[in-house]
Amino acid sequence: MTRKGLALILLLAGSPAYAATDASGFEDLTKLEGRVVGALDADVGKPGGPVTHLDHRLKLQPCPQPVAIDPPALGAVALRCESIGWRIRVPLVKAPGMNAVANSAAVGPALYQSAQPTTPPLIKRGDPVQLVSGDNGFTVTTSAVAQEDGRLGGRIRVKASDRNQIMIGMVEDGGSVRMSSF
């Protein structure tokens, strides 16, 4: 091996983007899962830990810096790569002191709303809403129907009028739900 080739291998081995990838060039979900388990101090399937292993069918672009692991909230932790813009939520097994139920039998709406809401919902199930998405100087809106009640800042399921697909967005105000894309 030439000096130039060895220097390139050493450079790539020290690169955080290279270290976080698997053999196929995507984010290494096994290492990411290990970081989550370590941050939560609870193994997969144990109280306070992830409900199940990360789905290895996910093909995430490698994050150039360490993936941010948010504190547990609403029965899940969020894993974020700010520079690229991806985020995944990992449901947690209910542990003593957790606010929301999140186990393998009840992962649905419990991830998006608190088990004991303190404010009345801004959007009720069946209400027409504006689905909003946009970035860098443009905004796209379409009509949708709320599939569940939602509070300011909470995540709810909506069904766009022109599509038969359920999507999840964040309640911005009484008639608007924001999504990253649709």
TrEMBL record:
Keywords tagged on the record: Bacterial flagellum biogenesis, Cell projection, Cilium, Flagellum, Periplasm, Signal
Protein name as it appears in the record: Flagella basal body P-ring formation protein FlgA
Q: Lineage in the entry?
A: Bacteria, Pseudomonadati, Pseudomonadota, Alphaproteobacteria, Sphingomonadales
- Signal peptide from the UniProt entry: 1-19
Instruction: Give the matching PANTHER family.
Output: FLAGELLA BASAL BODY P-RING FORMATION PROTEIN FLGA (PTHR36307)
**Which InterPro entries has this protein been placed in?**
Flagellar_FlgA, SAF_FlgA
Its primary localisation, in coarse terms, equals: periplasm
Record flagged with keyword Signal: yes
Where does the UniProt annotation locate this protein? Periplasm
Instruction: Tell me the function of this protein.
Output: Involved in the assembly process of the P-ring formation. It may associate with FlgF on the rod constituting a structure essential for the P-ring assembly or may act as a modulator protein for the P-ring assembly.
Gene encoding the protein: flgA
